Amino acid sequence: MQKLKRNFYEKDSITLARELLGKYIIHNINGEELIGKIVETEAYMGPEDKAAHSYNNRRTPRTEIMYGPAGYAYIFRIYGMYNCMNVVAAHVDEPQAVLVRAIEPISELNKISIRRYGKAYDELKRSQIISLSNGPGKLCLALGIDMSNYGDDLCGDRLYIAEGNNDEKFDIVTSKRINIDYAEEAIHYPWRFYIKGNKFVSKPHI
DNA sequence: GTCATGATACAG
DNA sequence: TGTATCATGACC
User: Fold this and answer.
1) pTM
2) Do the Cβ atoms of A154 and A176 come closer than 8 Å?
3) Around Cβ A120, how many Cβ atoms within 10 Å?
4) Over the stretch A106-119, which tens digit does the pLDDT of each residue have?
5) pLDDT at residue A1 above 90?
């Protein structure tokens, strides 16, 4: 599978968010190669975007990675319990990122199932299969992504993104972003994207 | 639908 | 020292 090169990430986060749909996230951990297809993303445009952690050029240890070059993993902890994975976009000193909101499990389904539920994939109910990775916190649990992945080079060999199946065609749905009620005028920006009809999308009706 | 959970950031 | 958050699971 063809790993995406640095220049793929060197664009604004809105464009990158659309182009990441259908791509594969691969995480090599403890000899397991866990793979998921990206089916839902959100763009965070940085200093001018009130929903972004880097709004007004806020620069802290948490946001620091977004100020570097594109193609690195920005992982943050949310509500004290869950991790979310973002892809750093744009260029140095342009702190933009794409939040990966949902994936479809592709490979090592049994390993993914055991990470989420502690039992085999073929023992799961239908509702549990969908819930494996239909949200930003869930997909990190499913693929074993945590704060130790903060700053991982997505052009590297541990946590990276590759071309998916380019024969698969899909329609892209656009909507408002999820759970950013604090973001004033930015609440309404149409910067969430997902693959139409994919059952792993977190909120398919918005 | 409601609610508890808790690391991080920030205001004061 | 208090308050809010790019979420989820367990409840009703």
Assistant:
1) 0.95
2) no
3) 11
4) 999 999 999 999 99
5) no
Nucleotide nearest to A79 (CA to C1'): B6
Task: Give chain C positions with protein CB within 7 A.
Answer: 4-9
For residue A205, the model assigns a pLDDT of: 84
For the CA of A142 and the C1' of B8, the distance in angstroms is 23
Alpha carbon distances (Å) from A102 to A5, A9, A69, A94, A135 = 22, 19, 24, 25, 5
**CA dist., res. A42 & res. A183, Å (int):** 14
Q: What is the pLDDT of residues A136-150, one digit of tens each?
A: 999 999 999 999 999
Q: What's the whole-number mean pLDDT along residues A31-46? A: 96
Which residues have CB atoms below 7 Å from chain C, the nucleic strand?
A 42, 44, 51-54, 78-82, 84, 86, 97, 99, 101, 116, 131, 135-139, 178-183, 202
Which region holds residue A161: left if phi is over 0, alpha if psi is between -120 and 50, else beta? beta
Cβ of A206 < 7 Å from strand B?
A: no
Q: What is the CA radius of gyration of chain A?
A: 16
Q: Closest Cα partner for A85 from A7, A30, A147?
A: A147
Q: Which of A13-17, A32-36, A181-185 has the lowest mean pLDDT?
A: A181-185
